[in-house]
Amino acid sequence: LKMSWFLFYLPLHLLMAARLCHSIKVPISSSQRSLRTNLFNFYHSLILADGKETTVHLLKDIPKRYYFILEEGRALAPFTVTVTPCDVPIEWSILEHKASASFLERAAKGDPGTQEVSTSQKAPSMVSTIFNYKGNSVETYMGMSSHSALYMLEFLSTERDTHVTVYLTTHLIPGRLYPELPVDPRIDVIGVGHTTVTLSWKHSPSVLQHRENIQYCLLVNEKHNYKSLCAAETAIRSSGMKLPPALALSLSPHLLEPQQVMILSNSELSIINKVSSGEVRQICMGAKNTYTVPNLSPDTQYYFDIFVVNLLTNASAAYTGTFARTLEEPEPKVTELKEGKVIQVVLDGKPQKFYSLQYQARHKKIQFTFQLCHGQVQVHIAKNGKTVASENISGLRYFSLKGKLLDTYLVQLRSIEESNCSVKVQVAPSFHKPLFPLLPESLKIKSFSKLRTCNSVTIAWLGTQEDSKYCVYKKKIEEDQDWREQQSADRCSGPESRHKSEKVLCKYFHDRNLQRAVTTETIRGLNAGTLYLFDVYLFGPSDIPVRYHSKVVKTRKSC
Questions:
Q1: Whole-model pTM?
Q2: CB under 8 Å to 423, separation ≥6 — which residues?
Q3: Which of 220, 219, 152 minimizes the C-alpha distance to 10?
Q4: Per-residue pLDDT reduced to its tens digit, 190-201
Q5: N or C: which end of the chain has fewer CB within 10 A?
Q6: How far is CA 62 from the centre of its chain?
Q7: Which tens digit of pLDDT belongs to each residue from 345-377?
C-alpha cells in the first residue's frame, strides 16, 4: 500500500514540479527547459482519455499504468472501463484513492503542500483495489463514485510483448463506441453439410437502431475461436502475414496483400487470408443475422466468430464463438468397366467431385483409351492403390500399362472447368483389335488463303499409313457463331448428328510414307463473302469416328 501511495502521487508531484518551473519568471537554461517539457510529456502520457479508445503496448513483465480523475460535480459520478486483450492473457486492475475536492484542486494548481501527505498514516485507509482481472477475454468494469477520486489502471503481461485497447467513459449511457450485444450472445449452428455450415444469431440492438452504420462480420478458421477482432488480426499477422488493421471492415481492395483474396458478391464482402494453418475468412454480410458459409472442406472442424462492428469507429463486440465439423464426403459410386466396352461419362462442373471407374485385369498388358468429347478432364489411374498415371487430357489419349493378373485399376475422372464435360472410356488387352483408328500426328485442318475464290476453298489434312475412310462436312455460319460453334462442338459425335445437306464427300486414302500422307480437297459451290465451318471425320476398323479440329474459312467477297 505504501508503494501504491507513492505511485499515485508520483505523477502529481511531477506535475507540480513542472508547473512551478512554469510559474516562476526567472531565466532558465536549455536543459531546464527540456526537463520541464519532459515532465509535462510524462504526466500527460499517463492520463487516460475519456470517451476514446486507447491502445496500450505492453512489454513482458513490465507494468504500465494509466490515471484518470473523477471530480465532485454531481451526486453520483458513473464511469465504465473496457479492456480488450489483443493476444495473450494479461493482468489488469483498478486502484482507487479517495481524496477531497480541495486536495485534487490544490494538486491541479501545483500546491506543494499536497506533497507533505504522510504515506505511512494515510495510504492504508485511502488506497484500495476495486477490481482485478487476469485472462484474455474482453472485460468491462462499471463503477460509481460519490466523491472525488484518483484512479489508476495497471496492466501487466507475463507471457510476451503484446497490446490491449482500453476504453474509458464517464457518460451515463455507455456503449457509444462499442455496439451492444443481445442478452443471449450465442451463435447457433442450424445446418451442417459436406461443404457448408449455416449459422444464426440474435440481433444486436445497435444493428436494429443504426442499421446503416452497424453490421455483422464473420470470421472462419480451423484453429480456435477468437474473443475479439483485434485478437484475430494479431493471430493472422503472427502467422507470417502483414494484415492491415480491421481489413475486413475497411472495404479497401487496394490494401490487400498477395496472400489475400477479396470476393464481393450479393452485397457481401469476403476476404480469404492464406496462412500456414489454413484459410482464415473474413465475411461481412450487413445486417443479416443468418448466413450459410460456402466452399468448406468435408470432414473438417471449423470455428466461427461473429463480430458486430461500428463502421464509423471500427470498434466491435464479439458474440460467443462456436464450432462445427462438416460432414464426411460420401464414398464415390464406383462403376465397373467391362473389357472392350466403351462407356461415355458425363461430368458436372464441380472440380471437387470425382467419377470413379474400376477394372480387374484379366491380362498382364492392358490399354486404357480416353476420347474427350467436350470440356477438359483430369484422369487419374491407380493400380492396387498406387498412382500409375495422372494428367489432363485433350482429344484422344492412350495409356498402355503392364501388371499382373487380377490387378485392380481405379480410374478417377473430374472436370477441371466449371462447365459440364464428357469423355468416352474403354479398357482392353493390348493385343485387342483397336477400337479407335490410328491417328495422324495432328488433327488440324489447314486452309490455303491463296486458293480461296468467291465460290470455293481448298483444305488439307494429315492421314496415316493405314487405309482409312475420311468424310468432309460443311456448315454455313454467321459472324458471331465462329467461336461458339467451335467451343460447343461435341468431338465424340459422328456424322449421324449432321444434316444430310452438310455432307460434302467421303474418300479413302493412306500412304506408307508418313511424309506424303497428306490429302487436299477443293470444296465448290459456295457463296461469296460467307463463313463456312468445315469438319473432317476419320473412321477406323470399328467405324467409330474421330473428329478433326473444326476449321472456319470465309470465301472472297469479289473475284
A1: 0.50
A2: 344, 345, 347, 370, 371, 372, 373, 377, 393, 413
A3: 152
A4: 999 999 999 999
A5: C
A6: 38
A7: 888 777 667 889 999 999 999 999 998 888 889
